[in-house]
Amino acid sequence: MRIPFTDLSPAPLMPEAGIFAPRIPAPLVFAALATLCGAFAVWVAQVYYSPLSAALHEGGPVEVASAVLWGLCAIMVIYFAPGRVFGSQWQILALFLLLFSREMDFDKRFLDDGILQLRLYSGDAPYWQKIVGLVVILMVLTVAWRLCRRNLPVLWAEVRRGAAWAWCSCGALGLLVVAKSLDGIGRKLADFGLTLDPQTVATAMIYEELFELFAVVVIVWAISLLEARVRRDHLGGSHL
Protein backbone atom coordinates (compact mmCIF):
# COMPACT_ATOMS: atom_id res chain seq x y z
CA MET A 1 0.00 0.00 0.00
CA ARG A 2 1.33 3.38 -0.90
CA ILE A 3 0.82 6.55 1.06
CA PRO A 4 1.98 10.12 0.45
CA PHE A 5 5.73 10.73 0.41
CA THR A 6 6.56 7.01 0.52
CA ASP A 7 8.13 4.40 -1.69
CA LEU A 8 5.74 3.92 -4.59
CA SER A 9 6.73 0.34 -5.36
CA PRO A 10 3.85 -2.16 -5.61
CA ALA A 11 2.70 -3.71 -2.37
CA PRO A 12 0.49 -6.73 -1.70
CA LEU A 13 -3.19 -6.22 -1.07
CA MET A 14 -4.00 -6.20 2.61
CA PRO A 15 -7.56 -6.53 3.94
CA GLU A 16 -6.57 -4.78 7.13
CA ALA A 17 -5.45 -1.76 5.11
CA GLY A 18 -8.88 -1.15 3.68
CA ILE A 19 -8.10 -2.50 0.21
CA PHE A 20 -10.97 -5.00 0.16
CA ALA A 21 -13.70 -2.57 1.11
CA PRO A 22 -15.41 -1.84 -2.21
CA ARG A 23 -18.65 -0.89 -0.52
CA ILE A 24 -17.00 1.74 1.65
CA PRO A 25 -15.49 4.59 -0.42
CA ALA A 26 -13.01 5.43 2.32
CA PRO A 27 -10.93 7.99 0.37
CA LEU A 28 -14.01 10.01 -0.52
CA VAL A 29 -15.40 9.72 3.01
CA PHE A 30 -12.19 11.00 4.57
CA ALA A 31 -11.83 13.85 2.06
CA ALA A 32 -15.45 14.92 2.47
CA LEU A 33 -15.17 14.73 6.26
CA ALA A 34 -12.08 16.95 6.26
CA THR A 35 -13.69 19.48 3.92
CA LEU A 36 -16.84 19.68 6.03
CA CYS A 37 -14.81 20.00 9.22
CA GLY A 38 -12.78 22.89 7.82
CA ALA A 39 -15.83 24.64 6.39
CA PHE A 40 -17.74 24.23 9.66
CA ALA A 41 -14.86 25.71 11.67
CA VAL A 42 -14.71 28.77 9.39
CA TRP A 43 -18.52 29.15 9.55
CA VAL A 44 -18.49 29.02 13.36
CA ALA A 45 -15.66 31.54 13.45
CA GLN A 46 -17.55 33.98 11.23
CA VAL A 47 -20.96 33.60 12.86
CA TYR A 48 -20.16 33.35 16.55
CA TYR A 49 -16.98 35.41 16.90
CA SER A 50 -16.52 39.11 16.42
CA PRO A 51 -13.99 40.19 15.36
CA LEU A 52 -12.96 37.12 13.39
CA SER A 53 -9.50 37.17 14.96
CA ALA A 54 -11.12 36.26 18.29
CA ALA A 55 -11.84 32.79 16.88
CA LEU A 56 -8.21 32.17 16.02
CA HIS A 57 -6.69 32.16 19.46
CA GLU A 58 -5.85 29.06 21.49
CA GLY A 59 -8.88 26.84 21.89
CA GLY A 60 -10.79 28.57 19.08
CA PRO A 61 -12.71 26.62 16.42
CA VAL A 62 -10.06 27.04 13.72
CA GLU A 63 -7.22 25.79 15.92
CA VAL A 64 -9.32 22.89 17.20
CA ALA A 65 -10.31 21.93 13.64
CA SER A 66 -6.66 22.01 12.53
CA ALA A 67 -5.67 19.72 15.41
CA VAL A 68 -8.54 17.32 14.69
CA LEU A 69 -7.59 17.14 11.02
CA TRP A 70 -3.92 16.43 11.73
CA GLY A 71 -5.16 13.63 13.94
CA LEU A 72 -7.37 12.47 11.07
CA CYS A 73 -4.31 12.32 8.82
CA ALA A 74 -2.66 9.97 11.32
CA ILE A 75 -5.79 7.80 11.42
CA MET A 76 -5.92 7.69 7.62
CA VAL A 77 -2.38 6.42 7.11
CA ILE A 78 -2.91 3.82 9.84
CA TYR A 79 -6.13 2.71 8.18
CA PHE A 80 -4.73 2.62 4.65
CA ALA A 81 -1.23 1.26 5.30
CA PRO A 82 -0.65 0.04 8.87
CA GLY A 83 2.20 -2.26 7.88
CA ARG A 84 4.27 0.57 6.46
CA VAL A 85 3.55 3.42 8.87
CA PHE A 86 4.39 1.11 11.77
CA GLY A 87 7.43 -0.12 9.87
CA SER A 88 9.75 1.36 7.29
CA GLN A 89 7.70 4.54 6.82
CA TRP A 90 7.08 5.36 10.48
CA GLN A 91 8.18 8.96 9.91
CA ILE A 92 4.90 9.66 8.07
CA LEU A 93 2.82 8.76 11.10
CA ALA A 94 5.28 10.53 13.41
CA LEU A 95 5.01 13.70 11.31
CA PHE A 96 1.23 13.85 11.64
CA LEU A 97 1.37 13.10 15.37
CA LEU A 98 3.96 15.84 15.87
CA LEU A 99 1.82 18.34 13.96
CA PHE A 100 -1.22 17.30 15.99
CA SER A 101 0.75 17.78 19.21
CA ARG A 102 1.99 21.18 18.09
CA GLU A 103 -1.53 22.34 17.24
CA MET A 104 -2.65 21.18 20.70
CA ASP A 105 0.26 23.15 22.22
CA PHE A 106 1.72 20.03 23.81
CA ASP A 107 5.18 21.50 23.18
CA LYS A 108 4.64 23.98 26.00
CA ARG A 109 1.51 22.89 27.86
CA PHE A 110 3.28 20.43 30.18
CA LEU A 111 6.61 22.23 30.61
CA ASP A 112 7.74 25.47 32.22
CA ASP A 113 8.70 26.85 28.79
CA GLY A 114 8.29 25.82 25.17
CA ILE A 115 10.49 23.03 23.90
CA LEU A 116 12.11 25.41 21.41
CA GLN A 117 12.72 28.10 24.03
CA LEU A 118 16.39 28.39 25.02
CA ARG A 119 15.47 29.34 28.58
CA LEU A 120 14.01 25.86 29.12
CA TYR A 121 17.55 24.47 28.90
CA SER A 122 19.53 27.37 30.36
CA GLY A 123 17.12 28.24 33.17
CA ASP A 124 15.98 26.55 36.37
CA ALA A 125 13.55 24.11 34.79
CA PRO A 126 13.71 20.55 36.21
CA TYR A 127 16.18 18.25 34.50
CA TRP A 128 13.44 15.88 33.38
CA GLN A 129 11.86 18.71 31.39
CA LYS A 130 15.17 19.46 29.70
CA ILE A 131 15.60 15.79 28.84
CA VAL A 132 12.07 15.58 27.43
CA GLY A 133 12.68 18.70 25.37
CA LEU A 134 15.94 17.35 23.94
CA VAL A 135 14.33 13.99 23.11
CA VAL A 136 11.49 15.72 21.27
CA ILE A 137 13.92 17.92 19.33
CA LEU A 138 15.94 14.83 18.40
CA MET A 139 12.73 13.13 17.22
CA VAL A 140 11.78 16.14 15.09
CA LEU A 141 15.21 16.23 13.48
CA THR A 142 15.12 12.48 12.81
CA VAL A 143 11.68 12.69 11.22
CA ALA A 144 12.76 15.67 9.09
CA TRP A 145 15.90 13.85 7.95
CA ARG A 146 13.99 10.71 6.99
CA LEU A 147 11.38 12.73 5.11
CA CYS A 148 14.04 14.57 3.13
CA ARG A 149 16.06 11.43 2.49
CA ARG A 150 13.34 8.90 1.74
CA ASN A 151 10.18 10.74 0.76
CA LEU A 152 10.89 14.09 -0.88
CA PRO A 153 12.61 12.54 -3.92
CA VAL A 154 9.50 10.42 -4.50
CA LEU A 155 7.26 13.45 -4.08
CA TRP A 156 9.30 15.40 -6.63
CA ALA A 157 9.19 12.51 -9.09
CA GLU A 158 5.41 12.31 -8.76
CA VAL A 159 5.09 16.08 -9.23
CA ARG A 160 6.97 15.79 -12.52
CA ARG A 161 4.59 13.03 -13.54
CA GLY A 162 1.64 15.30 -12.79
CA ALA A 163 0.19 13.17 -9.99
CA ALA A 164 -2.72 14.98 -8.33
CA TRP A 165 -1.80 13.84 -4.83
CA ALA A 166 1.74 15.18 -5.25
CA TRP A 167 0.55 18.58 -6.44
CA CYS A 168 -1.88 18.75 -3.53
CA SER A 169 0.97 17.93 -1.16
CA CYS A 170 3.15 20.69 -2.63
CA GLY A 171 0.26 23.14 -2.41
CA ALA A 172 -0.22 22.28 1.25
CA LEU A 173 3.49 22.72 1.93
CA GLY A 174 3.35 26.12 0.24
CA LEU A 175 0.42 27.16 2.42
CA LEU A 176 2.30 26.09 5.54
CA VAL A 177 5.38 28.05 4.49
CA VAL A 178 3.31 31.19 3.90
CA ALA A 179 1.49 30.69 7.21
CA LYS A 180 4.78 30.34 9.06
CA SER A 181 6.10 33.51 7.45
CA LEU A 182 3.01 35.39 8.68
CA ASP A 183 3.38 34.08 12.22
CA GLY A 184 4.50 37.00 14.37
CA ILE A 185 5.12 39.16 11.32
CA GLY A 186 4.88 42.34 13.38
CA ARG A 187 7.70 41.19 15.65
CA LYS A 188 9.78 39.94 12.74
CA LEU A 189 9.56 43.21 10.81
CA ALA A 190 10.21 45.22 13.96
CA ASP A 191 13.69 43.69 14.03
CA PHE A 192 14.31 45.46 10.70
CA GLY A 193 12.93 48.77 11.91
CA LEU A 194 9.52 48.35 10.25
CA THR A 195 6.36 48.86 12.26
CA LEU A 196 2.98 47.48 11.21
CA ASP A 197 -0.27 48.88 12.50
CA PRO A 198 -2.30 46.58 14.78
CA GLN A 199 -5.01 46.04 12.16
CA THR A 200 -2.47 44.70 9.66
CA VAL A 201 -1.00 42.37 12.28
CA ALA A 202 -4.48 41.09 13.19
CA THR A 203 -5.26 40.49 9.51
CA ALA A 204 -2.00 38.60 9.07
CA MET A 205 -2.90 36.39 12.02
CA ILE A 206 -6.26 35.58 10.41
CA TYR A 207 -4.59 34.52 7.17
CA GLU A 208 -1.96 32.52 9.08
CA GLU A 209 -4.52 30.39 10.91
CA LEU A 210 -6.74 29.97 7.85
CA PHE A 211 -3.80 28.93 5.67
CA GLU A 212 -2.82 26.32 8.27
CA LEU A 213 -6.38 24.98 8.30
CA PHE A 214 -6.60 24.89 4.49
CA ALA A 215 -3.21 23.16 4.33
CA VAL A 216 -4.28 20.23 6.47
CA VAL A 217 -7.52 19.87 4.49
CA VAL A 218 -5.44 19.67 1.30
CA ILE A 219 -3.16 17.07 2.91
CA VAL A 220 -6.21 14.93 3.66
CA TRP A 221 -7.19 15.25 0.00
CA ALA A 222 -3.66 14.27 -1.05
CA ILE A 223 -3.80 11.09 1.02
CA SER A 224 -7.28 10.33 -0.31
CA LEU A 225 -6.22 10.86 -3.94
CA LEU A 226 -3.23 8.58 -3.56
CA GLU A 227 -5.30 5.86 -1.92
CA ALA A 228 -7.86 6.15 -4.72
CA ARG A 229 -5.09 5.73 -7.30
CA VAL A 230 -3.70 2.72 -5.47
CA ARG A 231 -7.15 1.10 -5.48
CA ARG A 232 -7.52 1.71 -9.20
CA ASP A 233 -4.06 0.24 -9.88
CA HIS A 234 -4.71 -2.90 -7.84
CA LEU A 235 -8.37 -3.52 -8.54
CA GLY A 236 -8.75 -2.03 -12.00
CA GLY A 237 -11.33 0.55 -11.05
CA SER A 238 -12.04 3.47 -8.80
CA HIS A 239 -14.08 3.12 -5.63
CA LEU A 240 -14.72 6.83 -5.46
UniProtKB/TrEMBL annotation:
The keyword Transmembrane helix applies. Keywords: Membrane, Transmembrane, Transmembrane helix. The chain crosses the membrane at residues 28-49, 61-81, 127-148, 164-182, 202-226. The keyword Membrane applies. This is Uncharacterized protein. It comes from Tritonibacter scottomollicae (Epibacterium scottomollicae).
